[in-house]
Specification:
Blueprint: E1 3-9, E2 12-19, E3 28-32, H1 43-49, E4 54-59, H2 78-92, E5 97-102, H3 106-115, E6 120-126, H4 135-151, H5 169-175, E7 195-200, H6 206-215, E8 219-224, H7 231-234, H8 236-250
Helix pairs in contact: 2-3
């Protein structure tokens, strides 16, 4: 059974949930959700992740059950999200953690890892992209991948409940804008930890993911077969298997 808490950070109140047992020596794992999704997007994977990790989930400011600060104009930035994560880790007494992110969440996750590398053991950045997102192409790729999985007899996994339930939908919409004009590409060479880039073979982000994997000092790219833009929901078994194999190979 996990624990829930509220953590005050720079004027915002963040909803945080922790699953797994750190007493057994399990390392911490920080999960970053995809765009406009709450932490509930990881619900179907958390019980299995908690066998190996102390799993930390945060609804970023403005998302889900988290409240933004009073000033709406300066807080929705990737740098702020990274600082918020550091403050939550401090609150929990966690010095270092592994990271797993999906889709839009890989953007703030990259900034967090680049700005605070001393706090990151490894990073798994799924559907990572440093360029402008091509949303129509993402949708088309996801549809093609779903048809291929259907042809292979891979049953769809029910989407966890509450992944789009926000106490303030307007704030959640603004929160995903993440500092327009912020350059993500300079962050990539600063990702010195072991990095897994896991991107669907039908995700247009794969073009940018290949660039990231080539630029990051210690990165590997895995193309997730028959997956579009959001592997943890489309093909969670493959997404999880790839993530755990990455850690097995590193001995973490």
């Amino acid at each position: 059974m996990g624990s829930e808490m509220k953590v005050e950070v720079d004027g915002a109140t963040l909803h945080v949930e922790v699953d797994g047992d750190s007493v057994q020596g399990n390392p911490a794992l920080l999960l970053w959700p995809p765009g406009r999704c709450t932490m509930r997007v990881w619900d179907h994977l958390v019980s299995r992740l908690a066998e190996h990790f102390e799993v930390v989930r945060i609804d970023p400011r403005g998302f889900g059950r988290s409240s933004p600060a009073a000033d709406p104009d300066t807080q929705y930035t990737f740098v702020q999200y990274g600082k918020d994560a550091c403050d939550v880790l401090d609150h929990l007494g966690i010095e270092r953690c592994h990271v797993w992110s999906q889709s839009w969440g890989s953007r703030p996750a990259m900034v967090f890892c680049a700005h605070h590398p001393e706090r990151v053991i490894t990073a798994a950045l799924y559907a990572a992209n440093v360029d402008k997102a091509d949303v129509p192409a993402q949708r088309e790729g996801t549809k093609r991948a779903a048809e291929l999985r259907r042809q292979q007899g891979i049953e769809p996994t029910p989407v966890p409940a509450g992944i789009m339930d926000h106490r303030d939908p307007e704030a959640a919409a603004r929160a995903t804008q993440g500092l327009p004009g912020f350059e993500l590409k300079p962050m990539v060479p600063r990702l010195t930890m072991p990095v897994l880039i896991g991107t669907g073979d039908h995700d247009p982000n794969l073009v940018s993911s290949r660039v990231i994997a080539a630029m990051a000092p210690n990165a590997q790219l895995v193309e997730l077969l028959r997956c579009g833009h959001n592997a943890i929901l489309e093909h969670p078994e493959l997404a999880l298997e790839t993530f755990l194999r990455f850690h097995d190979e590193l001995g973490t």
